[in-house]
Amino acid sequence: MERILVTGACGQVGSELVPALRARYGADTVIATGHKTEPSQELLDGGEFCFIDCTDIDRVADVVRKYNVGAIYNLTTILSAKAEANPQLAWTVNVNSLRNILEVAREYECAVFTPSTIGAFGLDTPLDNTPQITIQRPGTMYGITKVAGELLCDYYYQKYGVDTRGVRWPGLISYVTPPGGGTTDYAVEIFYEAVRHGKYEHCFIKAGTYLDMMYMPDALKSAFQIMEAEPGRLKHRNAYNVTAMSFAPEDIAGEIKKHIPGFTIDYRVDPIRQAIAESWPNKMDDSAARADWGWQPQYDLPAMTFDMLNKLSARLKQ
Ligand code: AKB
After folding, report:
1. Global model pTM greater than 0.90
2. What's the gap between Cα 275 and its chain centre?
3. Residue among 12, 13, 75, 80 to mutate when testing ligand 1 (max atoms within 8 A of CB)
4. How far apart (Å, rounded) are the C-alpha atoms in residues 103 and 74?
């Protein structure tokens, strides 16, 4: 039986992707892996887990060989704000790990899913209706590593026939594991503060700053859909734009207020994350993903807010 390997499984996406993959393809099929973060009990109870450092190619190859891996979901990444604080580490983790994974995938004939991001765009890019193919000159190390990743994945597909696939995710909103070190994370933090304190005092992104966003169930759906898509339909393969909603901090605050009437938002803008946010799309054009493999998000801002508040409140009460 060919198995699925997930790297970065203890992170914001991995902690939800792994259970979803296990539910979809069988618990024994999925090998969750992490580097330093301790896995949750759910990850450990649900199936196989092991530690790997993806910058160590021999270790990646050992695990792929040992478990007869046929597909790798590569979630190992350092997010934008953290990457700006330590650009050297960001390059090592984001690019060298991916290069190792692609090399191992070439040798053992694995498919590879690697998410890119809105961070792969920059100030020279049209920020409204950002096209699928456009100028990509990001000014952040995170963005540079993501553009390099998109190109590396294309290269391994074209040169070696590795079945690489990917999407450009927007900011992801979720309640299981909080994200760490991102620019769009204010849109997650706001929910924790709303549920715990009924107010969000230090929004680090300015009012009026629009960014693409997506609720985690839709992000998981996009990964499944592109990995299951008939190969002939994938005109772009790596890094399809996908989005679900676009909003500014005051919009999400207004939506939360409908459920928590006294909710208030105040700002303490972080200049580094604000500059990053201003260099990212306000709203991407994801029509290529819709046309080529049927991408269709389920959650808009009101539906996501309603579900997030319910699920997060229940979780924080446990
Ligand atoms: C970040 O803010 O760094 C990430 C992303 C949009 O890629 N959430």
Report:
1. yes
2. 20
3. 80
4. 13
Judge if the beta carbon of residue 79 lies within 6 A of ligand 1: yes
Q: Where are the domains of the chain?
A: 3-170+214-241, 179-213+246-282+302-316
Are 252 and 302 in contact, with CB atoms under 8 Å apart? no
Block means of pLDDT (10 residues each) for the chain, 318 residues, are 95 96 97 91 93 96 97 97 97 98 98 98 97 98 98 98 98 92 97 97 98 98 97 94 98 98 98 98 98 98 98 93
CB 283 within 8 A of CB 130: yes
Residue 1: its pLDDT value, please?
84
Fold of 3-170+214-241: Rossmann fold (3.40.50)
- Per the document, the length of the chain is 318
- From the CB of 171, is ligand 1 less than 6 Å away? yes
Kindly state the helix (H) or strand (E) to which residue 213 belongs, with its residue range: strand 211-215
- Tell me, in angstroms, the distance from the centre of ligand 1 to residue 170's CA: 7
In the reported structure, the alpha carbon of residue 183 is separated from the centroid of ligand 1 by a whole-number distance in angstroms of 6
